Amino acid sequence: MAHILVTGVAGFIGSHTADLMLAAGHRVTGVDNFRTGHRANLENAFAQPGFVFREMDVTAPGALREAVDAARPDAIVHLAALVSVQESIANPELNYELNVRASHLVAEAARQGGVPRVVFASSAAIYGDNPELPLREQADKQPISPYGAAKLASEALLLGHAAAFGLTVRCQRYFNVFGPRQDPASPYSGVISIFERRYRAGQPVTIHGDGRQTRDFISVRDVARANMIAATVPGLASGVANICTGRETTLLSICEEFRRHFPAAPPPIHGAPRTGDIARSVGAPEQATAALGFQAEISIAEGIADLIRGG
Ligand code: UD1
Questions:
Q1: 100: CB partners within 8 A, 6+ apart
Q2: Position 148 in a domain
Q3: Is the pLDDT of residue 11 over 90?
Q4: 176 lines ligand 1 (CB under 6 A)
Q5: Range 286-295 average pLDDT
Q6: 214 lines ligand 1 (CB under 6 A)
Q7: Mean pLDDT to the nearest integer, 258-275
Q8: Is residue 202 part of a domain?
Q9: Which structural domain range is residue 47 located in?
Q10: Is residue 44 included in any domain, yes or no?
């Protein structure tokens, strides 16, 4: 069994990753500063004997080094981040601090603390609106936000450390992740989290445009499993992989799926398309299968049922 340090453990993806690792018998040291994470997400983790929590900011001087020295983990899963694309546009300096400098600090803490492996939360945002679908890892990187640019820069920083210092670095390019604990608070939150809240409240959802736009929606439980594999399976080589399903789903079919659970819901309202919206997005999942042995298993129908059940 391994001991994993998870940064951003109180976040949406972090808390599911910790829960899954603990259930599999691994030990987890989790760190979070609760900037966007929530203590409530850790309710299950706190009940497990293999869980240790440190409230800290990964960019505070010496903080990561101290956490690494105390835990002596087998891997770091670095999920702490500024997670909102919109916030990266409003505050590029903070985006740099939390999405670039923090990644460098993780790479350095791993090198200096002798941690052999780092798993990094990258994003499909590095591809921007590259139209060559499905998006393969070698596709042109055309980030259209400071957020996407920072994720791309972080991949380069971490892989540079991997090559120079012999760490194993796995960059996980998540597509549109959805599931329980995703925060629906902002109009720019993940669309499925917004829709779930509105269907549950009996309010109409707003579809920006005709609803035929597509995304590659992946359940957070599949993403957590991809993180656990990348952190714990022995003998992996460094590299990047899309964490996606390879399935393209329209917003209209997401609405249909919700209607099966909320048949009395009012019909969606169609608003103007969102500025800068991408018409279609889907990833090629083969590289994750080849490099990690990972394949998404949860269908949209199962994922939405899971979200409605909560947990
Ligand atoms: C992602 C980012 C978003 C960013 C955008 C552009 C996430 C969760 N979102 O958006 O912050 O601005 O890239 O870089 O990372 N939609 C509706 N109704 C709603 C909400 C959304 O119709 O109430 C539509 C959107 O217009 C879009 C689709 O749903 O067409 C998916 O939206 P979203 O979940 O924000 O994902 P991305 O568009 O991939």
A1: 150, 153, 154, 157
A2: yes
A3: yes
A4: yes
A5: 98
A6: no
A7: 96
A8: no
A9: 3-178+217-246+283-297
A10: yes
In this structure, the residue with its CA closest to atom 6 of ligand 1 is: 277
| Nearest protein Cα to ligand 1, atom 27 | 277
Residue 110 counted as domain residue: yes
Residue of 147, 174, 188, 199 with catalytic role: 147
Nearest CA to ligand 1 atom 21: 191
Distance 278 CA to ligand 1 centre (A): 9
- The CATH number for 221's domain is 3.40.50.720
- Whole-prediction pTM: 0.98
To test ligand 1's pocket by mutation, which of 82, 191, 274 has the most ligand atoms within 8 angstroms of CB? 191
Domain tally, the chain: 1
